[in-house]
Amino acid sequence: MKRSRINQIIAEADEMIRRFGFQLPPFAYWTPDEFATRTQSARHVIDARCGWDITDYGDGCFDEMGLFLFTLRNGLLSDLQRGGGMCYAEKLLISKQDQLSPMHTHVIKAEDIINRGGATLVVELYGSDDQGNFAEDRGGVVMCDGIKRTFAAGEKLRFAPGESVTLMPGDWHAFWGEGGDVLIGEVSTVNDDETDNIFRAPIGRFAEIEEDEAPMHLLVSDYGKWLG
């Protein structure tokens, strides 16, 4: 992805988030230079990979297959492993109309996916086999706003603003916006996007960036290069 396109997506996403009454934390608006001067005080933000995240899954077609995310807060895997401390995470996502977030599951993370506003959120679901692999012929059970719901393999559940689904490890899912763009909330156990996203197809989680202009704000995938 070109950095100019990433900068445009950030500006558009910030406008949509504000339109639905959410305000991002101050570090969201730091310039790269400001971030560099605050690396010591912002060490948790960096280590927990909080902040802007835009991906085309390495496919180069963001409008067809991609996702915008902002990680608001996140604990560390070490907290989860020892069973105490900050064992949770929270994100905002934007799924554009017909923009696919491809079929995947998680080994560790359980998550609530919440339609925070906009159009209809469609979630396509499959179950796992006994080894946790994608099972084309298996459904399962999820909680929708705390109510148990059985789904068939490949069933597409639709969620209006305010509605949600709880996905457990082994629940294979893909999602997109239907009829317009959707602002999504995600509340989960500790989030580790580097190792805990298992995709059905052999795709990447992070985009390759072409630096055609300076970054407006750093992405979480920039931290290693820009902040050390």
Structure at a glance:
The chain is α+β, with helices and mostly antiparallel strands. It contains five helices and twelve strands.
Structural account:
With 228 residues, this protein is α+β, with helices and mostly antiparallel strands. The chain has a single domain (3-227), classed as Jelly Rolls (Sandwich), CATH 2.60.120. It contains five helices and twelve strands. It has helices at 3-19, 32-37, 43-47, 77-82, 223-227; strands at residues 51-55, 67-74, 88-95, 101-105, 111-128, 134-135, 140-144, 147-151, 155-159, 164-167, 172-189, 198-199. Strands 1, 2, 3, 4, 5, 6, 9, 10, 11 and 12 form a ten-stranded antiparallel beta sheet that branches. Strands 7-8 form a two-stranded antiparallel ribbon. The radius of gyration is 17 Å and the shape is globular. The model has no long low-confidence stretch (mean pLDDT 95).
CATH uppermost class: Mainly Beta
In percent terms, what proportion of residues is strand?
A: 35-45%
Low-pLDDT sequence parts: none
Largest sheet: 10 strands, antiparallel
CATH superfamily: Jelly Rolls
Radius of gyration: 17 Å
Helical content (DSSP H or I, runs of 4+): 10-25%
> Which second-level CATH architecture applies?
Sandwich
Order of helices and strands: HHHEEHEEEEEEEEEEH
Instruction: Kindly give the count of domains.
Output: 1
